[in-house]
Amino acid sequence: MRVGNACTLQLICIRILFFWIIFYIGKSDVLESPNGMAIIAVNTECCMGVLERISDAFEKKKVPSSDAILTNSYFYRLSAKCSNQKSFLVFLRFGNRFYAQMKSYILSRIWFGLCKPLKILNIVVSLFRPRRLDSVFFMEGGKRVGILNFQFETNNFGAVLVPYSLQSILSKLGFRAYIINFDPSFFSRFTNKKKFFALCLGYKFVKFKYDFLNLSDLFVHASSLSKLNGFTDVFIFGSDQIWKQKITRENYASYYGDFADDSKKLIAYAASFGSGIFEEISQENTLKCGELLHRFSSVSVREESGVKICFEHFGVDAQCVLDPVLLNDPSDLAPIYSKSDFCGTGEPYIALHELSSDNGALRVAVELSKMISMPFISISTFKRRILGRTMNFMNSPADWIQGIRHSELVVTDSFHCVVCAIIFQKQFIAVRYMSDPLVDRFENLLGKLGLSDRLVSSVSEVLTRNILNKKIDYSKVEPLLSKERGKSLEFLVSALFK
């Protein structure tokens, strides 16, 4: 659980903490309401008896203090005061009036600029919707699994769907999964005008993360990640281009698990080097990566080229698996897209999602729109007038997925947009752009599913291959996809339980 400011009251053996902000209250009959709350630490039978006598005044949930979220500094201090192993944390829920007063207090603090910079972001997010208490730490049994990838990436749909997918899969397997909220570029988002502007335009991504991801406390320095060893049994690294050192730079070793104790199990799932060849920064870095990679109990990569890199450069055997988003079926993504109000345009349309600045996908969409007399819409952005100026804001992941679901045809240069088109069995055209260093991620996936002809460079290839008249037969694709899903899940289950 992540908290804002707190005041405390200590009475004999009872320690009470009143929290101004409750960000994440897990799915519980008692704790579902986003209202004000107190946490009371109890370490004697007498104190428990006192609470029982006043139990009618509150709704409560009793949780062993050993299951408290250890990353929170308040809980560290609390555990020192309540060292008795039989101590409990009791969560008491207050009414809407209490929460409304706290919200007013928060707004006033923002207005007068009295909050520290790190707390302002959490407070602003809480105003969209208070988080629920992280259910990860209140599930019975199951090891705690920390997932490290690029969830912090600004306005990237794939970057948030990857951790969501892994988190969901691990939860189904009975593990208590959470996302390691490591964001080394956090401060630059507020000091760099371009990054700050992008953050503002993508405010719906921030809300998505706090609604759907079990995020740990924020870590901005790699040196702080070692704290995770105190409450994590397994670390999973991936997916995405976490082993591309031109992206991770001075933090590259963190994505090879240098912060993890030797006693921890390390697993790489669908990791990527971000290129078909290994881009060596220095021989020293390569040697260090090799040493760290040999500590992993299981290694898998997203591309076949990654299997070759692991063996030739590090002497490590790796398996090629599916991107975690592809392990979802449509129902697994329903909790996300059900939050969208978008229900289509009332007529068939082409869904366009473009990452590259070379406008290759846009040109294809424009030409196809003319040829088949069907309008196209950008599913990644929406327009809003601010102070007389039209601004392009980023759509939420929910609206983005809905844009794919309701489309007649998807045109994109985005790998994860192609992935979602396959999940929802949509006709699609994947447009490669010349500056893409990892086009083999498309080639690997589409080749396995017998869809290689859907990857084009221009509209002329669409016409030459007669793609518009050759519909994708998903009755043939599904058996191939199920086979690959089975292999990938088998790797993950084996890695976790061996």
Could you name the ranges where pLDDT drops below 50 across 5 or more consecutive residues? 1-39, 65-140
The level of helicity is 25-40%
Secondary-structure-derived class: alpha/beta
Q: Compute the CA-based radius of gyration.
A: 24 Å
Major β-sheet strand ordering: 7-6-8-9-10-11
Distance between the termini: 30 Å
Would you report the number of β strands?
18
Overall pLDDT confidence: 76
> What is the beta-strand fraction?
15-25%
Instruction: Please tally the helical runs, counting DSSP H or I stretches of 4 or more residues.
Output: 18
What best-fitting shape do the alpha-carbon axes yield?
A: globular
Main beta sheet: strand number and arrangement?
6 strands, parallel
Account of the protein in words:
The chain is an alpha/beta fold and 498 residues long. Helices cover 37% and strands 17% of the residues. The chain has helices spanning 45-53, 73-81, 96-111, 117-128, 157-172, 188-191, 193-201, 203-212, 245-248, 283-293, 304-314, 334-337, 360-372, 397-405, 415-423, 440-448, 459-464, 474-497; strands at 6-11, 14-19, 37-42, 59-64, 88-93, 144-148, 176-179, 234-237, 265-271, 298-301, 319-320, 350-353, 376-378, 381-386, 389-394, 409-412, 427-431, 455-456. The strands form 4 sheets. Strands 7-6-8-9-10-11 form a 6-stranded parallel β-sheet. Strand 8 (234-237), helix 9 (245-248) and strand 9 form a beta-alpha-beta unit. The longest helix is centred in the last third of the chain and has 24 residues, at 474-497. The model is unreliable at 1-39 and 65-140 (pLDDT under 50).
